[in-house]
Amino acid sequence: MIGSEERYTTPEERKAKIRERYKGIDPNELDVIPAIKPADFYSDKSNKRVAVYARVSTDDPNQTSSYELQKNHYTDVVSRHEGWELSQIYADEGISGTSLQHRDSFVRMIQDCKTGKIDLIITKSVSRFARNVLDCIGYVRELAKLQPPIGVFFETENIYTLNPNSEMSLSFISTLAQEESHNKSEIMNSSIEMRFRRGIFLTPPLLGYDQDENGDLVINQEEAKTVRLIFFMYLYGYTCVQIAETLTRLGRRTKKGNTKWSPRAVLQQLENERHCGDVLARKTWTPSYLDHKAKKNKQDRNQYLMRDHHEAIISRDDFIAVQRLISNAKYGCSRILPQLSVIHEGALKGFVIINPKWAAFTADDYRNASASVYEDGHVFLDEQQINVNAGDFDLRGFQVARAELFNTREKTSISFSTSNIKFSAGCLKKLPKVIYVEMLIHPELKLLAVRPAAKNNKNAIKWCVLKETDHQPKSIGGKAFLPRIFELLDWDTNCKYSVRGERLSNESGTEAVILFKMTDTEVFYRDKPPEGDDVVSPVSSKTIRAFPLHWTASFGDEYYRQAQIKELLNFTNNKTWNTSSEGIPYITEELDVTSPSVLEAEIGSMIENIEKADDNHE
């Protein structure tokens, strides 16, 4: 209640007072100062600097006529209209309207509006201005808020954006334009899919090849010399930087005719499977038709590989070897062709050694390497009859409680993410004075073993650092191999994992390893895990710890079952452990790679011939 209304105590009195006040006064008692009526768009004769925006969506020559007609038409429209002066024609040719990416003229036009160089924009249609609803409405509103406001006139739809009732029509039409682009995108994707299914592949220009009248790839012998030189130099040990410098010095041309090479340009040649005669279709895909941003295809869409599609410049074995070198070079392991090694005897039989910088192997490579040491291809832990000696406690029915159930300060554990791993301080105490370790995994038993290693061991990992007088755990990068480990264990790459381990040593204490059972893990989620899959225990507001649901049915493994596993793995005092046994290379694939001596001779010969040809040409 305000003013005198507060003096009226009943609702009826207050309502009567309000009705009396809102009867108003006699209009003749007011002097009305009229507003300036907005000029009608068609009858407005005021001076305006007019910008024209024209666009065609492809750079096909057939579209050039549309492009030129738009510019010529609106030049005439502006010149015939009284008071209009053509400021500039802004034109984008061969650019899609669903995104502002590469639409340099459009962006420049909007900026000129903001700096006061333009009073009005004219364009053919809403679809020419933008096929993205957010961009269309957003920029129209932004221009209307400027002082003075700037309108956009869409000729086909007869919409002028400064009219107060224009936005509903504009929203509807721009939505239709966007959906039209969506439909065209779907049709194009379906067409590409049908082509690939029938082995009809796109053949973009590629160094070393030309296209015949049927569009098939045929070797360009002069360009093929450059391709062979690139592959042979890389196999021999040259880096992409060194190869690029050599090609630039020799004046070798790229497919576009440039004589200046970059390391990236060299790498693109090395990674293209067409040089060995194969074709892999759909290496990338476009998730959104609105921004057209290509993304690496990680099985998001079907891929199609056709071997021996055309004549090869490089042998397939040399190409595979180069891909392995490239893959491992990303993690600092250059100039070494990676090779898996597996333990053939002792307590660690069937364990595959993990090299922290080797990324070229698949989960199946690890499985096959482990299976290769067993006669039937896999280890079989046969349940043995349990015999209890007289006088011993009969522990049948008892369980060994899981270490995860106890919050011990000196826990022996290892934590995993997709990018790094870290051992606990308890692990370091289990192997005192050990600076370097070697990790091994048994893919079938789902066990991870850690054993001491020498510093010069190519698989050695430095798992601690010296701080003051004490060794502290060190975070270990594992982007090269951890994706394979997650795949082997069927782990979720969005989660982190923690696994408890146990130190095992022989009777004399001369051999010791830490063994981790990778099937029993603590899982750390950023969000709540799927309902029913885990037992959840909040750790913090951002992290949720979870345990496997089957843990609720027991405290841990049966006592004799756990002891039996150690016995079958030869982790007992009455057998030879031989845990320091070296791994024997497992050949994942026999490659007939060009030998270093041949590579050296070929490189020297090719460079010499190129230099002679240049001298003769001069």
Number of helices: 15
| Structural shape | flat
**Amount of beta strand:** 15-25%
- Pick out the low-confidence regions: 563-568
Average of the residue pLDDT scores: 79
Beta strands, count: 29
* Structural Rg: 37 Å
Helix-and-strand structural type: alpha+beta
Distance between the termini: 100 Å
Number of domains: 3
Strand count, sense and barrel status of the largest sheet are: 12 strands, antiparallel
Helix content: 25-40%
Describe, in plain words, how this protein is organized in 3D.
The structure is a single chain. By secondary structure, this protein is an alpha+beta fold. The protein has three domains: 48-180, Rossmann fold (3-Layer(aba) Sandwich); 209-329, Putative Large Serine Recombinase, Chain B, Domain 2 (Hect, E3 ligase catalytic domain fold); 352-384 and 394-586, no CATH class. It has 15 helices and 29 strands. The strands form eight sheets. Strands 13, 15, 16, 17, 18, 19, 22, 23, 24, 25, 26 and 27 form a twelve-stranded antiparallel sheet that branches. A five-stranded mixed sheet has the order 2-1-3-4-5, with helices on both faces. Helix 7 (221-236) packs across helix 15 (596-617) and helix 11 (363-371) crosses helix 13 (482-489). The longest helix is centred in the N-terminal third of the chain and has 32 residues, at 166-197. The termini are far apart. The model is unreliable at 563-568 (pLDDT under 50). Residues 49-199 form the Resolvase/invertase-type recombinase catalytic domain. Residues 206-332 form the Recombinase domain. This is Resolvase, N-terminal domain protein. It holds the Pfam family Resolvase. One of its GO terms (molecular function) is DNA strand exchange activity.
